[in-house]
Amino acid sequence: MICPFCKNTNTRVVDKRDRTDYSITRRRRECTKCKMRFSTYERIENIDLEVIKKSGRIEPFNSEKLRRGITLAVQKYITSEVINEIIERIESRLTNQKGNKVLSSKIGDMVLEELQVIDKLSYLRFASIYKKV
Ligand SMILES: [Zn+2]
Predict the structure, then answer these.
(1) What is the mean pLDDT of the chain?
(2) Cα 16 to averaged position of ligand 1 atoms, centre (Å)
(3) How far is the CA of 85 from the centre of ligand 1 (A)?
(4) Residue 133 C-alpha to ligand 1 middle, in angstroms?
(5) How far does residue 38's CA lie from ligand 1's centre (Å)?
(6) Residues 5-51: pLDDT tens digits?
(7) Which residues contact 116 (CB under 8 A, 6 or more apart)?
(8) What is the pTM of this model?
(9) Residues 6+ apart with CB under 8 A from 55
(10) How confident is the model at residue 129 (pLDDT cuts 50, 70, 90)?
(11) 97 has a pLDDT exceeding 90
(12) Burial of 7 (0-12, 13-18, 19+ CB in 10 A)
């Protein structure tokens, strides 16, 4: 996202409000350079990806489901803003990978990699829940 005031390309999300149809998200962004804030309306791309579960069952990738899973495990420790950033990074990694199938365990590992750097307690909590599943 480019800052409309100074054209700086480095902005951060300061607030996010999902609309009910989940296809367009309004985001408040703040420019890291001039500190001006502005709104963007961003379309949530549905990632064309199939997830292979441990049981062998295949289902389409659903980022809301991923968000719920992470939120349930770590909401006491990290904010929903940080969880959104984790999901954005994982989605971009998933869209850049080869092929359109991914093991659910690989997504779990990606979450753990993220949590490991962000918050140790969240990491341990997610790991304990996720290893049992
Ligand atoms: Zn700016």
Answers:
(1) 85
(2) 19
(3) 21
(4) 45
(5) 10
(6) 898 888 888 776 554 445 566 778 899 999 999 887 776 556 778 99
(7) 123
(8) 0.65
(9) none
(10) confident
(11) no
(12) exposed
pLDDT the model gives residue 21: 47
* Distance between Cα 10 and ligand 1 center (Å): 8
**Cβ atoms 29, 10 nearer than 8 A:** no
CA atoms of 133 and 120, how far apart (whole Å) = 20
Distance between CA atoms of 120 and 51, rounded to whole angstroms?
A: 27
